[in-house]
Amino acid sequence: xxxxxxxxxxxxxxxxxxxxxxxxxxxxxxxxxxxxxxxxxxxxxxxxxxxxxxxxxxxxxxxxxxxxxxxxxxxxxxxxxxxxxxxxxxxxxxxxxxxxxxxxxxxxxxxxxxxxxxxxxxxxxxxxxxxxxxxxxxxxxxxxxxxxxxxxxxxxxxxxxxxxxxxxxxxxxxxxxxxxxxxxxxxxxxxxxxxxxxxxxxxxxxxxxxxxxxxxxxxxxxxxxxxxxxxxxxxxxxxxxxxxxxxxxxxxxxxxxxxxxxxxxxxxxxxxxxxxxxxxxxxxxxxxxxxxxxxxxxxxxxxxxxxxxxxxxxxxxxxxxxxxxxxxxxxxxxxxxxxxxxxxxxxxxxxxxxxxxxxxxxxxxxxxxxxxxxxxxxxxxx
Length: 382
Prior knowledge:
- By secondary structure, the protein is α/β, with parallel strands linked by helices.
- It is built from 13 helices and 16 strands.
- The strands form two sheets. Strands 1, 2, 3, 4, 5, 14, 15 and 16 form an eight-stranded mixed beta sheet that branches. It has an eight-stranded parallel beta sheet with strand order 6-7-8-9-10-11-12-13.
């Protein structure tokens, strides 16, 4: 193949949807046109028996905020923050990333929710200027127990495309923060709330929930359905939470905090997403259910890197070692095919003929997988 847009990757451990082969993969016009074993057609780019995976699909990462606000009260250049964040995402093997942008003002956000358009504008500008390696989509994280969330979300959706909406409620005493002491440890430890002001913070958050949560959730669900945007529930803890998610036609359950909620979501056809750091660390930083335990029970569908981008690949390679009966293909599906299908991205997520040539070359010679190359729509970007 003399056309630079046409090439063959060979001598690779190719991770397909349900098994791994030693073989080759042909690319033309940004798509996969052939996958096989045996002698590849024509000259090849030798991958030296490295793994070839679909490009990872990340549904929930708020790591952009760490680049935009590198220290409390410090704001970095939004465009520079986006480019730096994108480089880290690509180096983690992620070809499609849903940038989590928060709406709904809350004392714990350090003002980030006020600047959702600043970050969205910077992502759009970086895209226009061809400064991005990965494809960036928008995940709008909506804090339902806040006064302005519906108005800001509606305005945002009028101006920009949104690919996922999550319905979040971080009210004390429920969901992620059923244990008030763990909530105190988290917020005070992160310097988001002063210890002397924590009790007042609790009362304010509870009052906001009582005033806004029910009506705002209903309105956000209407907005999502009207705009054909997939929805995620967040931190479901009880069967009542799951029944609510089913009624709202939610597609993804982000970080359920109990086995009961995860099991009910999975059985209802809602894809259960857990944090990859939970797998890597061996448990939840909030003291909730272990992702490994859900995987052992068959309730884990999707992994998210959440706050550590390279945890996505690391967790996917660790799962087969930790979970009896789970092979590498099934583990890789939790970070590729499953998140793609859950958000209606049917053109990517697996290495099969006709799919986008979003691919990542991974060396796994030592204790951790290392990304060597990333291709998006057939073009090498990292």
